[in-house]
Amino acid sequence: MVSVGPPGQAEESLRYGEEHYRTLFKAIADAVFVHEVREDGPPGRFLEANSVACGRLGYTREELLQMSPADIDAPDSGVDVKSIGRRVLAGETVAFEQVHLAKDGRRIPVEIRAQKFSLDGKVCVLSLVRDITEHKQAGQALKESEYRLNLALDASGLAVWDYDFVTGDVRLSRHWWPILGYAPGEVPSRIEAWEKLTHPDDVGQVKAALGAHMKGITPILDAEYRMQAKSGEWRWIRTVGRVVERDAAGRALRGTGTHGDITPRKKQEERIERLTRIHQVLSGINSAVVRIRDRNELFQEACRIAARQGGFGIAWISKFDPATMDVTPVAWAGIDAIGYEKLKTTARADVPPGHGVVGRAIRQQKPVACNDLAAEPDVGSEQRREALRLGYRSDIALPLFEEGSVAGTLTLYAKEPDFFTGDEIKLLAELAGDVSFALDFMAKEEKLSYLAYYDALTGAANRTLLNDRLAQTLVQAHRYGHIVAVVVLNLDHLKLINDSLGHTAGDELLKRCVARIRSCVRESDTVARLGGDEFVLVLPGQRNASATSRVVSRVAEAVSAAPEITETLQRVLNAVSEPMIVSERELNMTCSMGVSLYPEDGKDAEILLRNAGAALSRAKQLGRKNYQFYTAELNARIAERLSLHSLLRQALERDEFALHYQPKIRLKTGEISGCEGLLRWNRPGAGIASPGEFIPVLEETGLIVDVGRWAMEKAVSTYRKWQAQHGQAPRIAVNVSRLQLAQKDFAAVVETLLKRNENGPVGLELEITESLIMQDIEANIAKLKAIRQMGISVAIDDFGTGHSSLSLIHSLPVDTLKIDRAFVTGMNASPDGLTIVTTIISLARGLGLKVVAEGVETGEQVKMLRLLNCEEIQGYAISRPLPEDQFEAWWKTYRPEGQPAVTLK
């Protein structure tokens, strides 16, 4: 634009002469117009126009002087002419763009600079007009070029950058922002901001590449690195560019280039690299499967290959125990910095460690991967958290199968996140399948070897292995002077089971019995099956015959316990120790055993087996379900115990049992509040037997269930007899045994015996020890609730000796707490003893329960319990347990202190 100077100077100059301005009009290269000014109206006609104006518009000077600006301004140009006129008249020089129309209709874009002007005393406007057609065309061309560039950048996914190396300013095309998810202007246009977004591990190598290019060492800049997107994700970026401006000394001043997202390509490259690693592991392990026949060696080699060839920093193989759900490491590699002891975990679903990949893979029986360990660091084994600390980000557990069941897992750790995806998991599952195939093959080989020495049905040693072990055992016994027991065991009535229920049921029973026998002996003992229902036990290292007797006794008890077999057997075999009706015959699944001892009964295997067989024959002659020693001295002792078993079974049938009654009194009034019926046995020819002599035997044989039922029925009938005779009667308490309460139909049995004793008040209280109730708390609560609804009271016997909690005591359906006699005895012996009794009494009162102190023997104890506000007492201080007639006589003459004797009607 040509300037004509300030407005004041122009006006003054024009006053000096018109010729001067005409010369000026001719010299200026731009068009010049002078037009009149009208107040608040359109511009007036032109007063002057130079030849440039005439030539540009195609008008003659005379034609233009007959026209006004409105005649040459394009009506659609959008210029506010009035506003511009007001500004010019106010003395402002105004520059603006306009479109002029030539005489031939051409549209000419122009730039106008207008200012106020005085001509012959008139106020006019002087306009200098420049043709900007070429400028506009160049701008449009630039826009079109930028448009095409943007299309190309949109299609390529690239962004353009321009970096001023001197100032650190960076200019970015609009395509840069979407790559990292930012809005334009959200990141400062400075190189520092760029560096801040670059991964710390990559900044150094990017700077090194840029430095090399700026020094001219490399022709172009080409760098691949990671930048953090707004979402937090790391994206792979490729920057390509070059220096485009240097100073005179050759120093780089500015560079430009492109910037593109290559994350998909990088992920594909990483995936190919991962698959290559897995293929290497697969190939290496398959080679190991072919050449290795030892399970542990194969496991160790597989871990080594996975760690070294596959690049997995941690690889370990576990053994799974389905009984305990424990997962134990058996082979590992690459964990020196962690320690294999931290690998042990569990497959249980009810604890956090069981929710790691190992536990889930075992439960789901399929590969389970975690591609972001940081998302769940508190599940799985302790080693998983340690692995996370060491930089591992992904892990996978692959179940290993043996004969159709999960035998363990192969677990691999990788430092890359999202390592284990579809194709990788498929390849690793194939790898686990190959290892599982090898395990199956080894298992078949081991089974063939196993069958050479073990019984296929029961897993017991066969005759070959028995002879070998017995011979070795006798050599060791001779060397060290030990006793060896050889037991020949026969399952009674197995033939009947086979004939009536079939061989399938018989085989299942055999397996269960062997399992129970094994549970009673040591791992060093031998359990062998000779065939059919005959077994041999070899018990080495016995110190004396008494120890042997205890082992044999445990075996007999185990075989007599109720095994759970097939549903067919369950129908008739409720308990091995109880009578069973099978095909209208009563059957007990028991065992008979004959025992011989080395060296007393023989010094070689053949003689010991023969003598044990002879002892077995004698056991069968004595009625089965017993064991006989070949040694006469021990036979006498065992015979006595067997005799006691037999006598007790007969005692119930012959009505030799009785209840002796011990009273309970209320301390506050001295009145009789009840009594406890205690079991006694009138042993023929021996008088009253001590409970310690026969009750344990009743428990062992299971007779306690029948005898306990008899005791409850006797107590109910006695109470109702007393009530009928005297009009009132003390409630009678009886003890409930472990086996009684364990019966599923215990409550139904109690209800039945009540019905047999007619209707009316029950008068029965059941005493159950605290520890017994706690054994199956939920089932026992249900039974006790049903019993209380029958009108029967429930007392917790020996309270304080079990392991119950206050919350459980509160929920138990009981009426009475009985303080154990040991606490009562120790009450005066120490402050602790007194504190225990005081606490139990306070607890009972707080829970609304009655409290009874048993075993009270001295007046001093009575006095102390009265001071402690104990509700009732029972013990020798009141009376010993008395037979029924003697108890009635005592009751008749008893009177509380200061009260008349109780009168019986």
Q: What quaternary form is this?
A: single chain
Please state roughly what percent of the residues sit in beta strands, choosing from under 5%, 5-15%, 15-25%, 25-35%, 35-45% or over 45%. 15-25%
- Globally, the shape reads elongated
Q: Give the termini distance in whole angstroms.
A: 143 Å
Model regions low in confidence, pLDDT < 50 over at least 5 residues: 1-17, 554-587, 898-905
Helical fraction: 40-55%
Figure out the total of helices: 33
Please state the structural category.
alpha+beta
Radius of gyration equals: 54 Å
Spatial strand order of the main sheet: 24-25-27-28-29-30-31-32
Query: Mean of the pLDDT scores?
Result: 80
Question: Main beta sheet, described?
Answer: 8 strands, mixed, barrel
Q: How many β strands by DSSP?
A: 32
3D structure, described in words:
- The protein is of the alpha+beta class.
- Helix 18 (503-520) runs antiparallel to helix 19 (545-560) and helix 24 runs parallel beside helix 26 (746-756).
- The chain is elongated.
- Mean pLDDT is 80; it is low at 1-17, 554-587 and 898-905.
Could you outline the blueprint of secondary structure elements for this entry?
Blueprint: H1 7-15, H2 18-27, E1 31-36, E2 46-49, H3 51-57, H4 61-65, H5 69-72, H6 81-89, E3 94-101, E4 107-119, E5 122-131, H7 133-156, E6 158-164, E7 170-172, H8 176-180, H9 191-197, H10 200-214, E8 221-228, E9 234-246, E10 252-261, H11 263-291, H12 295-308, E11 314-321, E12 326-333, E13 345-346, H13 357-364, E14 368-370, H14 382-389, E15 394-402, E16 405-414, H15 422-451, H16 463-480, E17 483-491, H17 494-501, H18 503-520, E18 526-531, E19 534-542, H19 545-560, H20 567-570, E20 580-582, E21 585-587, E22 591-598, H21 605-621, E23 627-629, H22 632-653, E24 657-666, E25 672-683, E26 687-689, H23 691-701, H24 703-726, E27 731-735, H25 738-742, H26 746-756, E28 764-769, H27 770-774, H28 777-788, E29 793-799, H29 806-811, E30 816-819, H30 821-825, H31 831-846, E31 850-854, H32 859-867, E32 872-874, H33 884-893
